[in-house]
Amino acid sequence: MKLQISCQLDYEAYSSTPLILMLRPRSGSGQWIIKEEYILEPSVPITEYTDIYGNLCQRLLSPLGKFTVHTSSIVQTADEIDVAPGAEFVLIEDLPAEELIYLLPSRYCESDQLGNLAFQIVGNAYPGYDQVELIRQWIHYNITYQYGFSNVSTSAKDTAYAKIGVCRDFSHLGIALCRSLSIPARMVVGYLYELNPMDLHAWFEAFIGGRWYTFDATQDYPKGNRVVLAYGRDAADVALATQFGSIFLLDMRVSVSVAEDITV
């Protein structure tokens, strides 16, 4: 399916402020960028670099006063995500070197403290995909999705205890539980078609059978039509906007819809 995605950030800056944004999707597995637009009002110089996780990052200095960032893209997405029951656990000694970082505890994913819970959840399941799917199901049925309870400091361990949170918290918990079983796991942020209420979304991926698979504990079943913006160890690596000064976000608007046919 071709999706039209957009995100608008409205700021007010009380001083000229450095910003790092992560708002451009890139073509890759499951998505192809057909057309995109990136508008700054007022216009200011902007540069781009690729971070250590392969994400496109935009660097700029905001002007004083009102400032708007508007991005939109038309993206060809996969209607379904791949599933692979029975896909095997990859031995640590056989993992690609670049995936080893996703085995380690991180700021929001205390995998070194959640091993007992992980083993309770997976029981005698076959190591690999089947374990991760049991983790996804356990989070889906045991953690209540509710706004206003968690905050930017909430970690996987907090969510496991409180059993309440939002997509960010569901993802952190899934990642931490996978890592506690020595399964590499990473956080993903982006867009999901027909998400309700519409917002930017978070889910996680696990490295099994020699590749990454998508898992989303907020959803009843595997849903495709996703657009990835960024990957990282946890939310600290995938912030869509990082500021270094006196600038305040006034509003954020996100939309995802079926794109009309276009001539490329």
β content, as a range? 35-45%
SSE succession? EEEEEEHHEHEHEEEEEE
Name the poorly predicted regions.
none
The class by helix and strand makeup works out as alpha+beta
Largest sheet: 4 strands, antiparallel
How many strands in all? 14
Number of domains: 2
Given the structure, what is the number of helices? 4
* CATH architecture grouping of the largest domain: Roll
Shape: globular
CATH class of the largest domain: Alpha Beta
Q: What Rg is obtained from the alpha carbons, in whole angstroms?
A: 19 Å
N/C terminus separation: 16 Å
Mean pLDDT: 96
Which fold name fills CATH's third level, the topology of the largest domain? C8orf32 fold
Helix percent reads 10-25%
Strand order of the largest sheet: 3-6-1-14
Pfam families: Transglut_core
InterPro entries: Papain-like_cys_pep_sf (IPR038765), Transglutaminase-like (IPR002931)
Domain Transglutaminase-like: 159-219
Organism: Arcicella gelida
